[in-house]
Design brief:
The protein has 304 residues and is α/β, with parallel strands linked by helices. Helices cover 26% and strands 16% of the residues. The strands form 6 sheets. Strands 2, 6, 7, 10, 11 and 16 form a 6-stranded parallel β-sheet that branches. Strands 1-4 form a two-stranded antiparallel ribbon. It has a two-stranded parallel ribbon with strand order 3-5.
């Protein structure tokens, strides 16, 4: 509580849009024709913090990504071979970490009628998807249980997210960095979080099987992937995908080469969409597309 209070009092109000971000290292040139960016936001607020973006910036980012020819995918699309992605669109995944209240907030009218805050993340995304149905169908909310997810009415909001077509992921029970605990203790963060989901979602918890690692990393050389792959919950795999925050762009082929527990993500508190669109392994490559709307030659043909 003391730490949370100190964080809250450190917020500085921002008027209008946050400044455009130009920093963050560009990834090394990739050896594949095109990458699949996975971008992550945390708080969507007018209060500036190390992990915040303004509502206006989120709206602008969605528009820029749409205009650049992207199409929203979910973790299930990676497993399904990107079959939903139109051949004139590039896949991108948008994620929100932690479950802050400004990701999904209810307000009340003077008459006591409840409605969704139009400046919260889910309302902004839903409004954009309603206006641009060819952009895809949903985003990912990675929920940690070190706080009350979405502030209040957690059960109702979690179920509503699934009803809306969004995806819910596991961000651990206590938000402890996975680089600071041994892999043998990962279950203490993953399984209790699934229990918390199950109490609110029941059978719908069976679809929660991807993890975003607190701290954005898992260690190398300590058998972490094997531990994650062996973990079960109610007779099914507890973890089928794991997401980093490493400022890199992953390839679809690498997902099938056994890297499903090290899927790269880009922190949008550090990077900006205009900057991402200049990265060669997102938009321009030497070997494949001469136009944004050419076929996607890197897209795999899945065998029967």
């Amino acid at each position: 509580m003391i730490m949370l209070f100190l964080v809250l009092i450190s917020f500085t109000p921002v008027i209008g849009n946050a400044p455009e971000l130009d920093h963050g290292p560009v990834p090394e040139p990739a050896d594949y024709a095109s990458g699949i960016p996975v971008i992550t936001y945390h708080q969507i607020t007018l209060h500036r913090s190390a992990y915040s973006a303004t509502p206006a910036r989120l709206r602008s980012d969605l528009q820029d990504l749409y205009d650049a020819g992207f199409f929203l995918i979910l973790p299930t699309d990676l497993e399904d071979g990107l079959g939903r992605v139109p051949f004139d669109r590039r896949p991108i995944m948008i994620t929100f970490d932690d479950g802050w209240e400004d990701n999904f907030r209810f307000l009340q009218t003077t008459d006591g009628e409840q409605y969704t805050d139009p400046d919260c993340a889910v309302a902004i995304v839903n409004a954009f998807l309603e206006e641009h149905p060819d952009f895809g169908s949903g985003v990912v909310f990675f929920i940690s249980w070190d706080k009350v997810p979405f502030g209040v009415q957690t059960e109702e909001k979690l179920n509503l997210l699934l009803d809306m077509g969004h995806f819910i992921g596991n961000h651990s029970a206590d938000h402890l960095a996975f680089t600071r605990i041994p892999p043998s203790k990962y279950w203490e963060q993953i399984i209790p979080a699934l229990n918390s989901f199950h109490r609110r979602l029941g059978l719908r918890t069976s679809g929660i099987n991807v993890v975003a690692y607190p701290g954005g990393q898992i260690p190398h050389g300590v058998n972490a992937e094997a531990v994650l792959a062996s973990m079960e919950y109610n007779g099914r795999p507890a973890v089928t995908q794991g997401y980093l925050v490493d400022g890199a762009v992953g390839s679809f082929s690498k997902f099938y080469d056994g890297n499903e527990f090290r899927i790269s993500r880009i922190d949008m508190a550090i990077y900006s969409v205009p900057r991402l669109l200049n990265w060669s392994n997102i938009m321009i490559e030497s070997n494949a597309r001469t136009s944004l709307h050419d076929d996607l030659p890197w897209r795999p043909i899945l065998s029967d």
